Amino acid sequence: MTEMIAIYSLLIFYAGSLITSFLHLVALRLPIGESINGLSKCDACKHKLKLYEVLPLIGFVINRGRCRYCSAKIDWIYPVLEVIGGLLYMAAYLYWGFSWEFAVAIVAIAVLMAESISDAYYMIVIDRIWIFGSIILIVIRIADQTILDHLLSAFVLFAIMLLIAFVGKKIYKQDAFGGGDVKLFIFIGLCLMIAEGILALMIASLLGMIYGFTRRSGRKAIIPLVPFIAVGSMIALFFGEAIIQWYFTLLGM
Ligand SMILES: [Zn+2]
Asked: Residue 142 — φ and ψ, nearest 5°?
């Protein structure tokens, strides 16, 4: 039994890093209208990479982190994201086993990872990706019979974001959130219950603020928030219930 869990964990880790690698390519290409068919190219010399070279981690290790054609260093962000992606899917499997909640986690990790990458590079939230993810989640939520709770959660979280965006604009004469951040909470509501979604938003705001302060130059510059929203949502997905319970215990409730 434990052997099976170990084997599944490894398989899911690698499948997760494959998904992440593919989504990285999609998130880089879709916003600039490039086709997502065809293998990756080297960022430096545009040489098309061989199949084994685009295999997550394996290609990186075989070529010792450099392009085989022009020997430019491969950006460390590729292997790092592939490891993070792999670990997240594996953690979700170990946490939930083969269940509907695991299926939700797979979709959540995939969509939030892709949107984070796209936001970090282009300040764009790709609508096709979160809408596609939402459709899959609606099917899963019908199957696990929590669809009403999550439609309500999606609606409430979207409304809260809209309200904050509106008030923020009135008070600070500056966008608190981009339209993409607001819309993304429809998807997040299908992943998380209302309280967990609010927790995700609070964590995201806190991390975003800390990041903003560490980059003193151009304090007013707009920073991409989706990566922080993704981190907040992941913490809420895995630990939300525990954190919220702990919080209410603190309040003596
Ligand atoms: Zn190259």
From this structure: -70, -40
**What spacing in Å lies between the alpha carbon of 17 and ligand 1's midpoint?**
22
What six digits make up the tokens of 5?
């869990």
- Taking the C-alpha atoms of residue 221 and residue 75, their distance in angstroms, rounded to an integer, is 25
User: What is the 8-class DSSP label of residue 30?
Assistant: G
Domain boundaries, the chain: 1-96, 99-253
**CA 186 – ligand 1 centroid, Å:** 40
DSSP assigned state of 173: S
Q: In whole angstroms, what is the distance from residue 106 CA to residue 138 CA? A: 14
Sign of CA pseudo-dihedral 141, 85, 199, 226: negative
Q: Inform me whether the pLDDT recorded for 38 exceeds 80.
A: no
Residue 45 CA to ligand 1 center (angstroms) comes to 4
Ligand 1 centre to CA of 66 (Å) is: 8
- Give the distance (Å) from ligand 1 centre to CA of residue 11: 30
* Rounded distance between C-alpha atoms, residue 5 and residue 206, angstroms: 36
User: What is the Å distance from ligand 1's center to 179 Cα?
Assistant: 37
Residue 132 and residue 127: Cα distance in Å, rounded? Answer: 8
Tell me the mean pLDDT in the region 25-36: 91
The rounded Å distance from CA 116 to ligand 1 centre is 25
Residue range 123-159, pLDDT digits in tens:
999 999 999 999 999 999 999 999 999 999 999 999 9
Using one digit for the tens of pLDDT, what is the confidence trace for 91-106? 999 999 999 999 999 9
Three-class secondary structure of residue 116 per DSSP? helix
What the block records as the tokens of 83 is 């490891």
Each residue of 220-233: pLDDT tens digit? 667 889 999 999 99
